[in-house]
Amino acid sequence: MNILAELQSRFAAALTDLAPDPQAYAAMVRPAQDARNGDYQANCAMPLARIVGAKPHDVAKTIIDRARLDDLCEPPTVAGPGFINLTLRREFLEHTLAAVAADRRFGAPAAESPKSIVVDFSSPNVAKPMHVGHLRSTVIGDALHRILEFAGHQVLSDNHVGDWGTQFGMILYGYKHFLDAEAYVADKVGELARLYRLVNQLCDCHDARESLPRLRAELEAATAKLPALEAAAGQDKAAQAALKKARAELDKQREELKTAERKVAAVEQDPAMRELADAHPGIARAARDETAKLHAGDPENRALWDEFLPACLGALQRLYDRLGIQFDHTLGESFYDPYLPEVVRQLASRGLAVESDGARCVFLEGRNAPFIVQKGDGAYTYATTDLATIEYRVKEFGAQIILYVVDARQSDHFEMLFETARRWGFADVECRHISFGMVLGEDGRPFKTRAGDTVGLESLLDEAIREARRIVDENDDSKRNEHDQPAPELDDAERAAVAEAVGLGGIKYADLRHNRESDYVFSWSKMLAKTGDTATYLQYAYARTRGILRKAEAAGAAAGTAPIAMAQPAERALALHICRFPEAVSAVAQEYRPNFLTQYLFELANSFSSFYDACPVMKEPDPAVRASRLRLVDLTGAVLKKGLSLLGIQACERM
Ligand code: ARG
Fold it and tell me: Using an 8 Å Cβ cutoff, are 470 and 495 in contact?
């Protein structure tokens, strides 16, 4: 049972004639911040009092008179200006806990109206440097897949890989002009990545070189205007704002110029690169032509693409295998290519897509830029593909909800996509951009792996596991037996397995525990710390529960099915926390925020630790109390393990 949801529905019933929108006020029932105020607290009396024009205290009294809570709570109390404090009854808690203990779902109810959900995540552009943002998408998407499925929905994971984009034009051009045949035989993907980077750098250099005169002229013109603006600023607010804006604009232009200069310099400072750049002046155009030829079905380019793609997907698969991540579908951009002309035809026939400067565009209200579905040269776009994808997912998968786990920089694209799809006729499918922030390095700039590609990500995982191994070794080497002699417990293979779980778990947990919309700083030491909000801490807590149970078993004591008593406050607090697992699952499923589950698990581990400090288990003389505590230990472990597995993180029996 979801206790919070139950309390809220009782409140909603009590509020029917009192509040304009009972659900909204009932939602103000929340877990209490401070255990001294009880288990839950309702703050709805204050805002309601303003509406009905009564004293908050009286409104609170009326609510508790009307609410039927006897079977769940002790008589509620009103505190301060009108806070309603709720304390669960002991019988109710015991009963709920017994039900949780007997349930493989730990009391989490299955969704009342299960939805058919497609989660679009990971979706890297193959053969192009993959950034940690793609790793974050992969980790968050996988957790959502697992949790939504557990919550009772029908979930399909779909990796919308970018396998048809302009990077292939660059790779094709590179392959035809710069291939290192030996390197290609030895490591196809590595050589393709090198070719991509090389061609990309040359294209960038030419583009930048071409734009330099314009950028310089613009900067000069803007700089020349500044003194007049400065003179005008004086006391005038509007003029000051104009000056501020001009200065910000100037900074941006300077930054742009610097970036362009850097791109040119990167090539010109290297004689070999300079020679290549001079020998291939039309490279950017030529690379675009290669893409166009591929899309038009040119046999040579198509054959090469057919040769490149399996290797690129294979490299990705290795990464997913290591992370324990599975996709139900990997329908990349190329898959939708045949559908694109029809998408544009339909949009045009509905008057949604119109001709503009030779391109076909959807103009949406309140947007500066149109949503371009076909370019002047006839090429379809990322947008067209995404529209075809929505149609396919609705028709073939019966999707009712589509989640796009993609970084925040694409939010404009998704807003326009969803609006266009709605007007095209897909108004019933709920599309959501599950946006997330950036991963930053300790210098505050976007975090980059050394090689900046899948190989870079793989070595990142290796590094995490190496770091974790150090921690595991240190911890195991420090173990002592009762005679204070060294007593390590793990052999080499076990240490390796634990290091794998801790290293990968650490990386995943760091991606999951932050509010997904915020940027966060990637830090090895914080990520793998044994205490604090880390996977390592939770994994140790789990291993501790297993250790206690092993000792108990060796001593002939077993938890069995003894009733769980909650005489001590720490026992009660832990029991209550265990009972709240369904609340965490449903919170994640409602807002698509895995950090609600990490937070729950972190608090569970804390609550367990307080319990273990306050309540002896094996040293407890009363066998009934001991058995009860052993059951609490067992149950804590089971919930920790389940929660971690819903995040895609492994728990280890000993560490
Ligand atoms: N391949 C894209 C990128 O790397 C992400 C694709 C996200 N999914 C989608 N349906 N647009 O930026």
Answer: no
Closest CA to 579 of 90, 145, 34: 90
Give the burial string for 103-122 (b: 16+ CB within 10 Å, else e). Answer: eeebbbeeeeeebbbbbbbb
Give the 3-state secondary structure of residue 329.
strand
Model pTM score:
0.92
Measured from the CB, is residue 94 less than 6 Å from ligand 1? no
3-state secondary structure of 104: coil
Residue in this structure with the two tokens 């613009």, named with its chain if needed: 218
- How close is the Cα of 125 to the center of ligand 1, in Å? 8
Structure-block tokens of residue 640: 């920790």
Q: pLDDT tens for residues 320-353?
A: 999 999 999 999 999 999 999 999 999 999 999 9
Residue 546 Cβ contacting ligand 1 at under 6 Å:
no
Amino acid residing at 530 = K
Please give the pLDDT value at position 558: 79
426 lines ligand 1 (CB under 6 A): no
| Cα torsion 463, 464, 466, 470: sign | positive
Q: What CATH architecture does domain 116-163+312-440 belong to? A: 3-Layer(aba) Sandwich (3.40)
125 within ligand 1 shell (Cβ under 6 A): yes
Per-residue model confidence as pLDDT tens digits over 247-289 = 999 999 999 999 999 999 999 999 999 999 999 999 999 999 9
User: Which of 123, 158, 333 is the best mutation target for the ligand 1 pocket, counting ligand atoms within 8 Å of the beta carbon and taking the most?
Assistant: 123
* 39, two tokens: 């288990």
Task: Calculate how far, in angstroms, residue 134's C-alpha sits from the geometric centre of ligand 1.
Answer: 9
Q: Is the C-beta atom of 433 inside 6 A of ligand 1?
A: no
For ligand 1, atom 3, name the residue with the nearest CA.
124
* CATH code, 500-646: 1.10.730.10
Q: Residue 161 — pLDDT band, cuts 50, 70, 90?
A: very high
Asked whether 386 lines ligand 1 (CB < 6 A), one says yes
- CA of 406, closest atom in ligand 1: 7
534 lines ligand 1 (CB under 6 A): no
Please say if the pLDDT value at position 446 is more than 90.
no
SS3 assignment, position 433: strand
Nearest to 547 by CA among 648, 630, 646: 630
> In CATH, what class is 3-88?
alpha beta
Nearest CA to ligand 1 atom 5: 123
CA 116 to ligand 1 center in whole angstroms: 21
Give the CA angle between residues 583, 106, 5 to the nearest 5°: 25
